């Protein structure tokens, strides 16, 4: 049975999740994380997409991507292919690095868009890896808080909803009571 085509149009924004095969690790050391970010940067230059937020967890990846001229399938194919080749070569492995096809959800509403950014940045807190989201340096959250520079992440798209104020965005992300229903909806979409 053929795969269903992914929805794409120029300017489409997606929440992408890629998982390690058999829930295995995608990143085994710091160089793996760094190399993945280098791939994102290289493919961004080739495919002209905007990376709105990201979080690299040990066994899965969250990306929030706005496409421009290339469809999401082309962008993700290149990212996952380059990383899988690197990972298999480095660790002398064969076979799939990623578990099946990546999950993607088109984001067509501003509230859902900022909710996805929040969800991505809180992922390490929800996984009990860190107590506070800004302690996790493998996400774009420190970039949003102006703690770290980046040519990779374009924060304006999300921060414009917060008057370009990092503190307002931080309050939105770290408030325990804000958008719990939206968080459940996003998690449900990913778990399907």
Automatic annotation (TrEMBL):
Any one of the GO BP annotations: DNA transposition
Lineage of the species this protein comes from: Bacteria, Bacillati, Bacillota, Clostridia, Halanaerobiales
Lineage top rank: taxon: Bacteria
Record InterPro entries: Transposase_17, Transposase_17_sf
Source organism (scientific name): Halanaerobium congolense
Name recorded for this polypeptide: REP element-mobilizing transposase RayT
Coiled-coil features, chain-numbered ranges: none
Residue ranges of every copy of the Transposase IS200-like domain listed in the record: 9-123
GO molecular-function terms, A-Z: DNA binding; transposase activity
């Amino acid at each position: 049975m053929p795969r269903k085509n992914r929805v794409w149009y120029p300017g489409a924004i997606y929440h992408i999740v890629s998982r390690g095969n058999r829930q295995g690790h995608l990143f085994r050391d710091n160089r793996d994380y760094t190399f993945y970010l280098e791939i994102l940067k290289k493919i961004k230059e080739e495919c002209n997409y905007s990376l709105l937020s990201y979080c690299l967890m040990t066994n899965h990846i969250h990306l929030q991507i706005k496409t421009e001229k290339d469809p999401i399938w082309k962008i993700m194919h290149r990212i996952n292919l380059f990383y899988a080749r690197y990972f298999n070569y480095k660790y002398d492995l064969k076979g799939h690095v990623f578990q099946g096809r990546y999950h993607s959800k088109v984001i067509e509403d501003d509230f859902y868009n900022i909710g996805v950014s929040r969800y991505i940045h809180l992922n390490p807190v929800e996984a009990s890896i860190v107590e506070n989201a800004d302690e996790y340096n493998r996400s774009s959250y420190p970039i949003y808080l102006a703690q770290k520079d980046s040519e990779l992440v374009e924060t304006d798209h999300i921060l414009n909803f917060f008057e370009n104020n990092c503190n307002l965005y931080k309050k939105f992300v770290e408030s325990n009571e804000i958008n719990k229903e939206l968080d459940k909806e996003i998690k449900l979409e990913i778990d399907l």
